Amino acid sequence: MAVRVGVLGATGAVGQRLIQLLDPHPEFEIAALTASESSAGKTYRQAAKWRANSPIPDDVASMTVSATDPDEVPSDVDLLFSSLPSSVGETVEPGFCEAGYVVSSNSSNGRMDDDIPLVIPEVNADHIDLLEVQRDERGWDGAMVKNPNCSTITFVPTLAALEEYGLETVHVATLQAVSGAGYDGVTSMEIIDNAIPHIGSEEDKLETESKKLLGSFDGAELTLNDVEVGASCNRIPTIDGHLENVFVETAEELSPAEAAEAMREYPSADLHSSPDQLIEVFEDPERPQPRLDRTLGNGMSISAGGIRESTFGLQYNCLAHNTMRGAAGASVLNGELLLENGYL
Amino acid sequence: MAVRVGVLGATGAVGQRLIQLLDPHPEFEIAALTASESSAGKTYRQAAKWRANSPIPDDVASMTVSATDPDEVPSDVDLLFSSLPSSVGETVEPGFCEAGYVVSSNSSNGRMDDDIPLVIPEVNADHIDLLEVQRDERGWDGAMVKNPNCSTITFVPTLAALEEYGLETVHVATLQAVSGAGYDGVTSMEIIDNAIPHIGSEEDKLETESKKLLGSFDGAELTLNDVEVGASCNRIPTIDGHLENVFVETAEELSPAEAAEAMREYPSADLHSSPDQLIEVFEDPERPQPRLDRTLGNGMSISAGGIRESTFGLQYNCLAHNTMRGAAGASVLNGELLLENGYL
Amino acid sequence: MAVRVGVLGATGAVGQRLIQLLDPHPEFEIAALTASESSAGKTYRQAAKWRANSPIPDDVASMTVSATDPDEVPSDVDLLFSSLPSSVGETVEPGFCEAGYVVSSNSSNGRMDDDIPLVIPEVNADHIDLLEVQRDERGWDGAMVKNPNCSTITFVPTLAALEEYGLETVHVATLQAVSGAGYDGVTSMEIIDNAIPHIGSEEDKLETESKKLLGSFDGAELTLNDVEVGASCNRIPTIDGHLENVFVETAEELSPAEAAEAMREYPSADLHSSPDQLIEVFEDPERPQPRLDRTLGNGMSISAGGIRESTFGLQYNCLAHNTMRGAAGASVLNGELLLENGYL
Amino acid sequence: MAVRVGVLGATGAVGQRLIQLLDPHPEFEIAALTASESSAGKTYRQAAKWRANSPIPDDVASMTVSATDPDEVPSDVDLLFSSLPSSVGETVEPGFCEAGYVVSSNSSNGRMDDDIPLVIPEVNADHIDLLEVQRDERGWDGAMVKNPNCSTITFVPTLAALEEYGLETVHVATLQAVSGAGYDGVTSMEIIDNAIPHIGSEEDKLETESKKLLGSFDGAELTLNDVEVGASCNRIPTIDGHLENVFVETAEELSPAEAAEAMREYPSADLHSSPDQLIEVFEDPERPQPRLDRTLGNGMSISAGGIRESTFGLQYNCLAHNTMRGAAGASVLNGELLLENGYL
């Protein structure tokens, strides 16, 4: 029997992706949609400016949107997917956890909190048990798990694959698609025939979230990984798919061939939305490319290529679909992990 | 009195830019245009598919194009600007030098040869005297000077400004405009809504040419700079302007403020095409941007911004107009240097 | 049992689309692939520069490509899909028909010939029987059916839906995607931040092919439709999907509501690749849009919107996926029609 | 001595263009800048998010911005250029006219009012004397002249050139640049790899403003032109430059050669910002193109091409720079006309 789930912030860009993923999902059943006060009471069709390239699922279109308030969500809903703006998430998400809901959140607030698991199931599924600590500390009946930022998700699985060689320093330059900023985040005047070499607090997210994702959890406490990451973020005129150039120095020597093998053999997870092959490695140095490779594994695979020796260490490129693997798909995957681990 | 000059490969994209720069130039007078055999005998208007956003200068339009052969170029032409494909340049450029022509070349062949000066006048003007060695060794009446690749020109002046702090290692990721590949170099199907994380032998050019440009010349021999550069090159859907993310580690400690000051105070050259301010430094971390900043200093300035501490060392972004500062303008500037130094 | 089919010009952009459509097709089985002499003898993986965003089907990848010559195609292949450049098609297609092959061709050569059926199955399936006349006249064992140009296919179904009101004059302005010119057809320098108000002989195709498609066939002769079409064609920076603005004057008065109803009710065909709804009509005047609506009906639907009264007559917009509905899908659909009508 | 002028709505996209044009203008001197209340009291550098590709003129940067209120503008300012949002313009512009200011406005409010001249100086300069009627009727000391919408300005001069042949019906399809919607008007998610076949009330503007511009003024009353215009407007991923496809039917027969000649010989005006050649006519059917031709005549020329016989009448393409000729430049030109005609 499917778990009854809700979407907080259901009308936004990531909210729409969540609905596309959850509607046909075998383990979940959409039972609640929330948005801002101004949308409350409307049908989803009225409330959402739907921009996906497939129609709104009929049953979802006719659902009534409620305000983003624990009192407005049916109590038989077990799991909430949150894609609220972080300023809103910060204010309302804890209330849902207190009220007993389990929240899988894509919002950036609280990601680095000591007792909030930040999880990519194929990378650090064991961190999910930080929820025990969280419940102890916060006295919540519910729980909160976060997925990292889209640009972090793109390169961390490739680092995880190389971790046995001892990660020391990483430089990463990102070429990020406009959808990462939300539907209205980047104007056309800003980006056509252009590139912007800075994205809000993005560089900080790559630098800190990666240390937490690659950290170790001993059942009581999370220890950050020692890797030092320096990031430089760029917005480019691409719709979907973040491409990243990575320079990595490891403690042990590592050849391009060994790196490719480590990535190819890095295991995926046994969850509904995990791709068969987590990291697709290309031999062609011109790949991966956003438009050609972002939909690999239903948009849930990472792809990598251009692995070569660099002046010190190794360099390579990687890519992921930022609103699938990097946002909506990441939250759904964490929902699946919560279910598998008995948190629902 | 103006020096009579010619353009080798006058119908190509860089050739067209050269004509735009040379036609109004006070020191030079266009006296010869060459192209492939199939264009020989045609007027320039007939031979060139002109794509600039200003009309062909009338006097140039009616000039007759000759084959790219020393016998076809009037002997009273003193200086030739070459923007031939490197495979052609390799074959024909030496013949022009032997025949007594001085060649300022944008073609990549021979750039790393021991006795060919590779010059950015504001950075290493003194390397021009390598021409004495060249003439001794090759027995040429003419001479050959090269300018570096467009992606190299973009970041080397910023490194030169920081050199007193002791350059150790550099990682650079480039976001390059399509015009860098020539008019037909990148198809629209390849690049719209996309990015390509690899450009032919571009990475190697950044890594090696920078060592030569920053090297020292003692009047007899050129010593390469010790800096270790690792480059990762990307093509993005931008018409003009290469943007680069630089991570640099120096021997001496260097704060962002010191780096900004060093760049701002780095002197320009006293040549006609040199901009008043060589490196424009932005405080706004979102700048420089290709569409907004590529035409600074008539397309001959470098711009920089986003200077901040990185996990080890410093990081910043820089930008230059790839067909102006990075190609045609670079060759013209070297022509001006040749004139000033008495090589014409 | 599946019909054995071949693809002439299998390595090109449309050829790759054909393979994507034919590989999983229940009625067809790929048994032959041809390309230019230089590809003959190679495996398809070696011969094709595959650019689709799904991998080459494994069984196809290992097939050996042969030259585009009737002697090189197995005789048990019944149906050939041709996406040859028209200059090549003109030379080689008749030889295949003579040799007994039935050819469903996307190439533009011969489309307006009196005895060659030009067919969109949902619009003029009855024209297929012009093949009887063709065989009589040409003495072919095989046969040749053509689909129209991609820009023609986009608007003709909407005109067909309005035909009962008496089509008199039509003005159509097209906004065409770059994929319509083939992979290398439009360079990025030509089209980024730009539009080109002319496409080869495209306007003529819209003006003449529409008259043939909407013409009537009495079993012996085809009579062209009287509609007068004036077309203006533009290339814009879009990957896939041709958008067209149509102004139509009809003999009988026609309200926007009647036009919308006529389009919605215009029947689809009962063929495997025909969409359930041939023409999707939007109420939102901002739709259809290429990126949002080109994949409707697996890329085989036409979409329309913005229907309103114009100064004389009616105006509306329509859209179709140019390499699916407008090229590869159109040829496959004609193949299905040939099968259903007993021509295989 | 230069006329002291002000800019209403100086921080917006058109306001910035106005400043770029007015700062070096020999006849005008910027003496007042207004913006919304939130900007009042700030320097222009603080108030404006400057996005032009040349720096803010120094003297303008340090000017203090005032509220858009007649009491806040120095009374020795004679002429105001207005680029306010139309809803704001509607509210505040009449107050400025009442207070004695002459306003040259780019805002769409009031353009079709009987006593407000809508002027393109090269087309209908004589309409300016409608100001006498306006002052009589409204009792204003000041006055108000409007320039048409950018998409109207693009094609009306070409129609004016053909008017002697008797304009009957016109169909026009526009391909409009994103800058026409203002800096934040079109998001990148809406337009990359896409086109939008509808722009607010744009079609209505083309259809009605053209009748007024081509109308006749007898000194007392304005009579609209009889031409019937049907317009279809599209937004495409281009930064600047509106391209339009025109189908025109005239009373008298008109060959493409006659139309080209009529356009080439259509006179420009003897005003500072009028280009030498008002309409540049291309023989190459692939021109005009936005990126190549928008800056002709400093962005104040119209260009045309692709003139050919259509099924009934003639068809051709035309292009103008939408924020120069179509907005800021149009208002400045009207200011010059006001000065020449003694209205200042």
Architecture overview:
Chains A, B, C, D: This is Aspartate-semialdehyde dehydrogenase. Chains A, B, C, D: Its EC number is 1.2.1.11. Chains A, B, C, D: GO terms for molecular function: aspartate-semialdehyde dehydrogenase activity; NAD binding; NADP binding; protein dimerization activity. Chains A, B, C, D: Belongs to the aspartate-semialdehyde dehydrogenase family. Chains A, B, C, D: InterPro entries: ASADH-related, Asp_semi-ald_DH_pep-lack, NAD(P)-bd_dom_sf, Semialdehyde_DH_NAD-bd, Semialdhyde_DH_dimer_dom. The structure is a homotetramer of 344-residue chains. Chain A has 344 residues and is an alpha/beta fold. Chain A folds into two domains: 161 residues, Rossmann fold (3-Layer(aba) Sandwich); 172 residues, Dihydrodipicolinate Reductase, domain 2. Helix content of chain A is 30%, strand content 22%. Chain A has twelve helices and 14 strands. In chain A, the strands form three sheets. Chain A has a six-stranded parallel beta sheet with strand order 3-2-1-4-5-6, with helices on both faces. Chain A is globular. In chain A, 60% of the residues are buried. Chains B and D meet through helix 11 of B and helix 11 of D.
